[in-house]
């Protein structure tokens, strides 16, 4: 992870991600929590025993604080274990309350002898888990950071060492480097004392070798190296090392606390402020050490003055110390096994003093493999200067902390696994070195004489040889100069071990400190530069140390700590006779030489075959492997692969490389470096050499590297061959077929740039049948890879699932489901869920039946147990499959499987679950309805929309189905499945699923809200088909309000229709209808917008209109929302509309064309062909022609196109035309002064009808013309038969004529309006029998009328517009525009009014 200089969103995300992962791991692993709890209890118990030993009284209040901590942790554990949501919430609240008591303690004091900082850190660690269970990662992170602030040492060593490494270690690398350098200086520098006088009586003086910093890092785990180092340091050096280590640990604590506070404060910053001001990360500076060691040097000088007086007692004390040491060693040997089993968290010194930080120290020791720097407060060296027999003398000379030293001593003993070592060398109070012959047993002496293994850091990781000219790179790794120079000369730019980019490629100067150490070691042990002789002579020893992993700790600068090929190679036992192997090596050496130097292809091929034969005979002997893992040999094998055409040679070379890659990481890097494009391996695949797939699979390439190879077709060929057996040493890990499937799995699942591209290619190559057959593979990993590939194929093209469902033998997959591990079972579960997405219910039932009945064990019981043990993010997947199996069988009122599955589903939908888990569960519920397209897409939403009248989505999803028309039996099976599924959900705990869905419908996230909405609407719709279950009140409580909100606020028409369908289910329930009336004002307008889309809107409208408890004035109040001012053209006489356009006729003879896409129309063009006022406008049935009548005695015919409106024809009349109507191609006109109506086509002659009447207005319907006359009469004229029927006879009035000004036909009703006649100005007639149905009691003189859906709009001569409910004589709105209304025109949700004042007003409700 790269450290950034600024705290920004990326660092915040990494921080939250790391903390979330740590907390989640802790929640998932109960054993980890149990071990941590037990360690804390032992630690606290030891401290309490210490207080009792000191006769210190423990107050009741202190005991209560400790009890609160225990109660809080117990409550947290109960919350983790329970599946009941309410119980979990309650236990988490209680846990938080109890833990806060310890979290808020004063960290500077103690409670019952226990540090408050320790208690606070423990409390914050558990509080982090509480907040993680509440899905609040930020609060969890804050608590974990508070843990590091409260007690950084315990936190990084005991509580959360892995999290400390992830968050803080990268910031403290400079501190670790400083510590290593300082320690190396202390060990390498000459002491202020004369080394020659340190031996007892001067008889044991030796020349002490200098040690590097790397030796000291390995001290605590390699006891022989420890003895060597102890024999080389002085008390002054030991004391300085202890002070250095204390300073180092304190520095780590201080900087850990510093960074933890910084992260915590940044997390508390508002996100808006963080975007503006990005805080700078603090820096970790190493401390200055010169001043630290000065007081210690002065103290040692004073001590040296008393040494001469004490020297005469040295011999006696030495004997006593030796006896005590031997006794102590025997105790270690006798009780070693019991000590290892007990692993005490703390210990007590011989004088009764309590041991400090023992638990942390022990755990630190156990984790020594994981840390690159020492984590203990006291050095292992310190322990060596504190043997029990010399306790008082050592404390006088070095002032060591007894408790820490004893703890280190015990921890060191537990770590050691060398059964032959019975004691350690002891050093007396004055630093004298004991003669090994006087202080160790003969068994130990023999062991140490055999133990001539060099320290690992003395060996180059590239050459496997002792260093001769070591150089240390900028990455901290050390190599032999010639080896690293060759590495760089080959074009490499990175460190071979760390893979970090080298900024400076010039080699540094020799590491003389390390060089001197290596030379001293060789002088002492008489070892040459070759490592081979060492391992040969100590083969038996290596067998004894084969399980010595705990002793192989690495230092910060170790070059082979992470991947030491030499240590792996020499841990292998030799197979076969040593002399035979020697002969094979003699045969191998010239073959290797020919391969590396020969330029003759045939010679190289023979060399490869020889090497292959030797390799097979030696069965991977480590010496043979060491000879072949050289870069030159690997490059030679790759070159032969690239050019050889002999298939047996290609197979042999590939087998050798496969085996080497499997056991040696260096081989993999060498192959990739030698052939970056991997052309040699791709060539093998092209030549159908199956071994190439094994080699490529073991190279473990990245996703981008794999996608660049273009080998899908070649891998399919290998699958067709079906090579399944082990054919050589290189195939032991997997067969060629298994390797091919594994590579295909990687290809189809890792292509972010081109998702599903490889899967589509597999489908095109017809590889699915081969993969189906491969489900029978014996190797379970191969089967799992096949399942993954098939899943990707189904995701790429769901149609292939039908082939899989029909032809696959699912028994082997069921075996994985029943017997597999957690991840394998999860994969098999996904596979079966996907297979059950067929568009045929019969096929789905067949798959589920196989899952339920196949196998020896009960699948339901296995899934039941797996569901209980699965982590929260995986429970719902198993639960959905288990629920489908339950629905498939005979329905039972009580079933533990059904209860467990539904409980897991409801829990997954709760707010405490992760968001992804909620979404996946909701989508699984939608799929559980059981309706799918041919491609496996759930049809639940499209099917519901089809029921609501919106059929297009359903048709789009089912048009690829070869059997689009569902058979009666199939439809019956689908309906039966739906009913059974609905029963299962509704019978669970009184409709608990309804409450969970209702909570999810409050979500603002569309990804979660939409599937929950679909499933809720489906449940609401299907429940009407079931017998009364008494759940209606729950549907109203949890669904009614969310449905209303969705109808009102959803921006998608389909979502609005779904909400309307859900609300429609409440119409037939009186109680629900009463509650729905309360939302009437909110839903009326969006329902009117859906009238053109779904029949549901009209039914709602009719229901509201019939409801007498509604106030119509409040519900359907209309208002003016806009106007167009066209007074320059005079009054607006008439209006017409067509395809998003509005046409207006004006008194100056112009026709203006408006675009109505926006809320307020915009003017497009003005037509000025008429010379006088335009009196009427009409459109043809196809709306592609406009007809205009004018007082200039003409009727013009206009062609309407998207770009223009052009005049096509002009019809002349003898008189001014007052009214106009169009019936097909027939033009019907009424003149302003003449009688009757004139009927004519555009080109034919005209005829006169109804000549006895003066016609004021016209309307056309079904080939008939309806005439409103000036004498209040209304006639129906049949244009075919030229007959006239009088609907309303005319009347004479002493006050003059009372004409019918407007007439409209709507849904078999005739609406007429004019002056008030017989107490009514508006009358409604039945179009079939001409009977008067009703009249509207208005006293206004109505000049225009518009009928639209539920409303009737009336425009009066006085400038008042009235709005009436069409089917009820109820006036709902009145608008006064102040000018005579000449025309009204409805258009969707708005009405346009044309007035005498030259304005067009827009009215809406």
From TrEMBL:
GO MF annotation terms: ubiquitin protein ligase activity
Entry keywords, A to Z: Transferase, WD repeat
Record's compositionally biased regions (Polar residues): 321-330, 389-401
SUPFAM superfamilies: ARM repeat, RING/U-box, WD40 repeat-like
Pfam families xrefs: ARM_LIN, ARM_LIN_2nd, ARM_LIN_C, U-box, WD40
Segments of skewed composition (Low complexity): 345-359, 376-386, 556-567
Boundaries of every U-box domain copy: 453-528
Record's catalysed reaction(s): S-ubiquitinyl-[E2 ubiquitin-conjugating enzyme]-L-cysteine + [acceptor protein]-L-lysine = [E2 ubiquitin-conjugating enzyme]-L-cysteine + N(6)-ubiquitinyl-[acceptor protein]-L-lysine
WD repeat intervals: 1167-1198
InterPro entries: ARM-like, ARM-type_fold, ARM_LIN, ARM_LIN_2nd, E3_ubiquitin-ligase_LIN, LIN_N, RING-Ubox_PUB, Ubox_domain
Bias (Acidic residues): 307-320
Gene3D superfamilies: Leucine-rich Repeat Variant (1.25.10.10), YVTN repeat-like/Quinoprotein amine dehydrogenase (2.130.10.10), Zinc/RING finger domain, C3HC4 (zinc finger) (3.30.40.10)
EC number(s) from the headed UniProt entry: 2.3.2.27
Basic and acidic residues composition bias: residue spans: 331-343, 363-373, 403-417
Record GO biological process: protein ubiquitination
Pathway, per record: Protein modification; protein ubiquitination
Region (Disordered): 304-417, 556-576
PANTHER family noted in UniProt: RING-TYPE E3 UBIQUITIN TRANSFERASE
Name of the protein in question: RING-type E3 ubiquitin transferase
